[in-house]
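Reader question, answered in our methods column.
A reader sent in the components of a multi-part assembly and asked whether the whole thing could be modeled at once rather than chain by chain. We filled in our standard form and ran it. Here is what they sent:
COMPLEX SIZE: three components
ENTRIES:
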Amino acid sequence: MSKTGAGNFFEDFSLGQKIVHATPRTLSDGDRALYAALYGSRFAVQSSDEFARAIGYPASPLDDLLVFNTMFGKTVPDVSLNAIANLGYAECLFSTPVYAGDTLSASSEVIGLKENSSGKTGTVYVRSRGVNQRGEEVLSFVRWVMVQKRNEKSAAPAAVVPLLKKTAGIKTGMPRLTPANWDFAQSGSPDRFDDYAVGEKIDHLDGVTVEEAEHQLATRLYQNTARVHFNQFAERDGRFGRRLIYGGHVISLARALSFNGLGNAFRIAGINGGRHAAPLFAGGTVFAWSEIIGKATQGDLGALRIVTRATRDVPCGDYPVEDGTAETPGVILELDYWALLPC
Amino acid sequence: MSKTGAGNFFEDFSLGQKIVHATPRTLSDGDRALYAALYGSRFAVQSSDEFARAIGYPASPLDDLLVFNTMFGKTVPDVSLNAIANLGYAECLFSTPVYAGDTLSASSEVIGLKENSSGKTGTVYVRSRGVNQRGEEVLSFVRWVMVQKRNEKSAAPAAVVPLLKKTAGIKTGMPRLTPANWDFAQSGSPDRFDDYAVGEKIDHLDGVTVEEAEHQLATRLYQNTARVHFNQFAERDGRFGRRLIYGGHVISLARALSFNGLGNAFRIAGINGGRHAAPLFAGGTVFAWSEIIGKATQGDLGALRIVTRATRDVPCGDYPVEDGTAETPGVILELDYWALLPC
Amino acid sequence: MSKTGAGNFFEDFSLGQKIVHATPRTLSDGDRALYAALYGSRFAVQSSDEFARAIGYPASPLDDLLVFNTMFGKTVPDVSLNAIANLGYAECLFSTPVYAGDTLSASSEVIGLKENSSGKTGTVYVRSRGVNQRGEEVLSFVRWVMVQKRNEKSAAPAAVVPLLKKTAGIKTGMPRLTPANWDFAQSGSPDRFDDYAVGEKIDHLDGVTVEEAEHQLATRLYQNTARVHFNQFAERDGRFGRRLIYGGHVISLARALSFNGLGNAFRIAGINGGRHAAPLFAGGTVFAWSEIIGKATQGDLGALRIVTRATRDVPCGDYPVEDGTAETPGVILELDYWALLPC
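And here is the structure of the entire assembly that came back:
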């Protein structure tokens, strides 16, 4: 009996199955600093204890996507080590903020299974949930992945595809904030909720070239063990001939780029859906643009529904929508999410 | 109206103009660790709480250049996003030490403006000031940058060039230190203030090759958004055909190298002047040498006035002074500063 | 008189000589986060305060090899700056755990000297010892290095080769742990002490490709100043034509890879012996496998004696033992150590 985890295959999942993920992780200001160095994010609430306290947080919360990526990493050894593709995300809700010193752990439930017509792979739907050391939910999300079968001849399970909401909703598990104390000079943007209109498009202008060392450092920080990100010896002969960059790294890059245009959109409330349209490799330059597709209020705050698209090697001045491929530049990420900002 | 910052052009500055910079930033031991990993600095005061307490600090202060680079980064989106060149620094004074947990914010005042004869660019002089969460000044400095005009036909403002001091002076905003408790074995150098003579030259011996991932991590840690450092897609067709390394990264590399020969020069009191003589690109190896050009005492401490020169791809055994260019090895930095050490 | 350290040569060492090393270092959660990003280690005790407290630690201790590498780094300027080769380790004992906020300092004693027959080099044996701010020993180890002579004509000292134990033993300087509270779901492995048999071999499966920026960040984090790791300008004309990766980086990589198969082996109690069989360079992919060569109990815990071998560019499915060279793939590290795990 091998003691090493080779990951689960499609046959290893069953509907309703619950999985406790290793390894619990205490996040700290060290993780915050690394996240800063990896993405250069400038949202004031996550950068300054003083700014965060002025609006009602007890201290500066950690970046929502640091929490997301940390949680995601925990699910990899059990859910997606043998995944061929990360197909999508839905119903991702951020609730209790996470602070330096909090310990996160994660579990998942299998909520859907569907063998593909090829008989070689199947799609697994899981709802993953992260809690802090007090058992308070900090994040939950659904994702679905295409997973290899161990044996092509295994019988297919009854197909169950969960009905997923088109919007994640917005949770209220956050401190009572005082957006009236928002300092628009310090935050780096004069634009508040009312300044954004549905249909508005924003080119985030900047581009950032990604290096192998950077995405490897990030992906390890998240304790994500997916092999395609780290092993050039194996990937040389793999699908792309090189290491594939973890999709969550692209999400974090796009969010950091979006500061230029969405500087007060300080918190991701939920991710309604997400799609990795094409792969990213080291040497590629990531650009991003956003479209406002909805507006709502949430207590004293406004919520913008935003679709951010990240591209590889395509500046976003004319708001490109065409998917890239491994060979051709184009859109690599489409992320539909709610972000909060002061009214 | 665009919501994205494209940076200020020469016409956007006016004499006496005050600018509040985004984003306030709480520095932590995470930033300290990253700074260590990026530069390998070994000054005992910034490395050990115990060493720092023995001489009178409440805890180990953060590296002066981490503070400088953090402050500098804040000024970039407002001052130098459209800069063609960082021309110089002066009157840089470090005052209240910065500790893990302190939150820094920055503002600037325009103190000089002079259009260049070409009519295409102008020089902007700003005095920038950083304060902690109690409003205590931690750092102030003057820098001047060559900035593009938005429109060549704009009228030139009245030329005002500030008179700048040749020496920054030395501020007293520091704890009452007890250099008698200095442990010369633990600090890594037996040499105290009296052991250095004006005119003395020191080759710092070591060389360090810089990688793209390293300078990008550093520059993002400082929330410095200048595009030339990150975007290979654009820079491929730019002035140098590649990403330019942030000048503050070179200053930090030179200071860390200078430990070998100036091991007890534990605090930068002020920077009298600085000049980036030539660009640095990834793959270049940085060496450094220093000359002692002045001595003074400051309370119980001695202050050495030092000119440190960093080179690209030139070992410093014979104290090179010739400037490099983008193509040829040579001096890339000349930094004139005061450093404190025990008598 | 030069103020810069050029390192000690063989003639500079004398039997019984005691060396206090610079620079004391306060380790923090920032170092923990960087260590995570550099190696992706997933041992629960070092990842989660909650997990660590459940079994009796006051908080999550820092990784043993972060402590080892930090200590090792301190010895480099005095012991191995002019080393040609790190020949071996022995009698390495980890005792008091190290927590964020602890300050480590290091000293060494010369316990052996032997000139080599060539007359150009000699072997220096030192026992190095690291203590925390309360003077409690956290680590001690013997290492021997081949060091250049300053002058071939210097007389050879009397040869003294210390008798070293074949096993480091296991120290008891640790909190009273409660392994009964071990959560095998959260730790990521169901396997406890009794599940391992002497003679058992484990392929750790994963491979990780190392980048220049990564090993440089790591080696600087440890304040290790050995020049061969950083200076491509000099190494271009050196032994290998490129930068050599610090051996301790390989040890940390191998230990992190070993999680997959040894997930509950949460603490290194001692290193019995170690050998760097071949060099590692950037671009190489590191794999690892382990063999259980002994078992013992230590209070309520079990101790496995493990030999972990790391390879360069050789997957470990058939447990390779052949040494690599600078040119040929093969074993690059052989590490014989005791690790603790719940019974």
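What stands out: Chain B has one domain: 13-151+165-342. The longest strand of chain B covers residues 285-298.
Send us your own complexes using the same form.
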